[in-house]
Amino acid sequence: MNSISSSKSTNLSGNFSVPGDKSISHRSLIIGSLVSGRIEINNLLESEDVIATAEALKILGVKINKLHDKWEVFGSGIGNFFGYNYTLNMGNSGTGARLLMGLVAGSNVEATFIGDESLSKRPMKRVTVPLKKTGAIIVSQSDNLPIKIRGSQIPLPIKYQSPISSAQVKSSILLAGLSSTGKTTIIEPSLSRDHTERMLKFFGANISTHKLDDMSWKITLEGIPELKPLNLNIPADPSSAAFPIVSAIITPNSKIKVENVCINELRTGLYKTLIEMGANIQILNEKEISGELVADITASSSSLKGIIVPKSRAASMIDEYPILSIAATRATGNTVMEGVEELRYKETDRIKTVCEGLRKIGVVTHETKDSMVIEGKGPNAKIIGNVEIDSNLDHRIAMSFLCLGLITEKEIIVRNTDTINSSFPLFKQKMNKIGANLNFF
Ligand code: S3P
Q: Are strands 147-150 and 108-114 parallel, antiparallel or unpaired?
């Protein structure tokens, strides 16, 4: 396993090319395998998580090829997966695992899902409970992988009220619901990212979203749609763009630009938060591609102030709290993050890992079960650094602390950085290209 050291840097500048969105990439392969015909995908994220999804789909019989600069998927329409005794290794990917569980639950397929050490600790009842209602038979020793699913030949359309706002749960149920006759309905407490809904609509499915009240949103899908084979362009990932953008904000004399970033409002909570904190961020050239809104984002060195980030914003920035915490160390005053319990169930317990890591460098942090407070040290405080942080097999923890090392007096060494490849291959090289000082250690 590699380690990377991050050392003090200034003048980050230039155009940063961020790879394709991870959530949309998974969905393009999975939903692409359900359209009636061949599609091409441009700018697919070629990271370990997404490749694990592609490999799993290939095991299930889908023809997927990498062409010179794009990918092709031969969809065989809804309800055309068959076979037994498959083993699907989803690696580190919660999204791949949970979405494909939905696909298998709604298909004439029996498959066992396995994953790496981190994924094997993550909760799966959030998807297995609703998927069982479709008629799928699900066998597991615990809440965790390995889990065997015998899909239902005639899946039932279900109505499910999810206790949590999770796009993985919602998408898993929708993917099972695609092959059931009738309407599948999910109610979630606040709207989670809607890439599945948008992509299904783009391909021609009948799917709608309604706000019922302040605590519930209803998503309804008509089963067995005919999905048209249309090509997809994947925008840059706002969760990955967050690392160079926060780096530019906290590093002196910096200005960078990231093009074609997905600015779906269910993904841009971090940007809203940073702007409220006083960050110099501009969002320019908005346009729509393949059913998603994209724009160019510029960011430059800024003075930040601490704010309260409300629970209502959590779903729209759930992956960005680690890097927000890094920005918060530079703010004047406290940054309070409310309603973030879901962070405890990510690749690692991100509240614990972030707070422990920041304490190591002398930043005062407070945590409760569902909140986190970072006491900002102000823009001019000298933070010594000179610590080692373990990624805990969490790519976003690894990248966040490498961004922090750009402003500490002495280097920060992050151990076990290979995990970065699950979402952001070439992170180190691309950061160095804008002037960051990251080195293999
Ligand atoms: C994702 C949804 C989020 C997010 C994950 C990707 C998706 O998880 O944390 O990185 O692609 O649906 P939850 O839906 O569990 O919040």
A: antiparallel
